[in-house]
């Protein structure tokens, strides 16, 4: 019996020894080595820290801990596959202290290595300095450069006869151009300030006084169809010229019947997109924005709207010309498809269709006389494409 108990005890000791060894291998408590060969490249509002990793084969990541310019302790990490990390969010001309740690797979932390460097002037000040404002139709265009390509928030303070409004613009593009529309043609005092994602912000700076150009609805009474360059939209009750008769089709009644109907049977037997409608404005204009309306009334709908149904126009290109031969692309546009898998359409999408789908050009167009509306898709019909109205906004009769 004693021999048997002795054997059991020896077996337990053996098992515990194996378990302890295994546990030590799977979860060692030895911290990794430290980073070495450190070099630092200061950047605008931060710095890039380059280093060599220790020889440990279980390194997980490197962690940098520092205090940002808001007085908050923050950290950045870089995986074992990197030999550099970026410290940013700084807005100071004094040195920043950074502690670098190495962390391994078992979450053991190395001793820290301390480095100090002085960042270059924050990129938010460079953005602020680069801001340029020019008057445009119904507003102003604001451009800036962002060499860091990091997110900035540009606060635009607009003072109009003692009344101040603030627009907040955001971008991380290296070159940005944004049009602020809906401003009166009055002299405006405009000031700006720039903030980064970490909360560093410049002082508010007055950029100058600007007067937006007067924007008006372009009168359509002089427009005529260039039939030999256009698709035939005269089918059933529809007429191509209804596209600019200033009558928008409505859901409630068929009395307006103001839309074009492009029927494949009247156009060679198929709808070959693009479907062009070419208009002679019989005057010179410039535009910055426009609206397009879909057909709304549905004969068999029992009062249900026809918006977003298969025959309605969906996407289109807009071209301008001064000779009706050479065309400049003003933009490519898409109304979009708000229908879900069951065909349901949210109320805001219906309201947008009723009020007209509004589109803006990237820039105010050059002066032109001829307009080409080139339909590139509808909502699925292979037989008919319809649309109700187009309205342009800009400078009329130049």
TrEMBL record:
Its recorded name reads F5/8 type C domain-containing protein
Which key words are in the record? Signal
PROSITE patterns found in the cross-reference section: PROKAR_LIPOPROTEIN
Q: DUF4959 domain: which residues? A: 25-119
Domain (DUF5126) spans 121-221
Q: Which residues form the signal peptide?
A: 1-22
Stretches assigned to the DUF5000 domain: 260-394
Q: Which SUPFAM superfamilies match?
A: Galactose-binding domain-like
């Amino acid at each position: 019996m004693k021999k048997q108990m002795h054997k059991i005890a020896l077996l337990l000791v053996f098992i515990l020894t194996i378990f302890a060894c295994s546990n030590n291998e799977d979860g060692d408590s030895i911290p990794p080595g430290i980073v070495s060969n450190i070099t630092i490249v200061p950047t605008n509002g931060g710095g890039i820290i380059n280093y060599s990793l220790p020889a440990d084969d279980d390194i997980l990541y490197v962690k940098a801990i520092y205090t940002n310019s808001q007085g908050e302790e923050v950290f950045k990490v870089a995986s074992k596959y990197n030999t550099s990390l970026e410290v940013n969010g700084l807005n100071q001309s004094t040195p920043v202290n950074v502690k670098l740690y190495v962390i391994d797979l078992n979450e053991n932390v190395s001793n820290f290595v301390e480095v100090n460097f002085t960042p270059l002037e924050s990129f938010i000040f460079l953005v602020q300095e680069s801001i340029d404002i020019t008057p445009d139709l119904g507003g102003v265009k604001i451009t800036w450069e962002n060499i860091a390509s990091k997110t900035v928030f540009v606060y635009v303070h607009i003072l109009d006869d003692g009344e101040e409004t603030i627009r907040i613009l955001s971008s991380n593009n290296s070159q940005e151009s944004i049009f602020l529309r809906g401003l009166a043609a009055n002299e405006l005092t405009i000031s700006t300030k720039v903030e980064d994602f970490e909360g560093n912000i410049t002082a508010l700076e007055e950029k100058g006084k600007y007067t937006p150009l007067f924007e008006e609805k372009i009168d359509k009474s002089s427009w005529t169809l260039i039939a030999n360059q256009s698709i035939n939209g005269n089918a059933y009750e529809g007429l191509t010229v209804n596209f600019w008769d200033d009558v928008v089709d409505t859901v409630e009644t068929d009395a307006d019947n103001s839309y074009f109907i492009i029927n494949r049977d009247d156009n060679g037997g198929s709808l070959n997109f693009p479907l062009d409608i070419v208009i002679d404005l019989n005057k010179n204009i410039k535009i910055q924005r426009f609206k397009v309306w879909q057909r709304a009334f549905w004969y068999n709908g029992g009062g249900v709207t026809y918006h977003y149904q298969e025959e309605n126009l969906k996407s289109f290109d807009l071209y301008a010309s001064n000779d009706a031969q050479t065309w400049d692309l003003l933009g490519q546009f898409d109304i979009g498809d708000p229908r879900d898998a069951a065909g349901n359409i949210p109320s805001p999408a219906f309201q947008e269709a009723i009020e007209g789908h509004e589109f803006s050009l990237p820039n105010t167009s050059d002066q032109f006389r001829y307009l080409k509306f080139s339909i590139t898709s509808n909502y699925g019909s292979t037989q008919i494409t319809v649309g109700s109205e187009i309205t342009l906004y800009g400078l009329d009769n130049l």
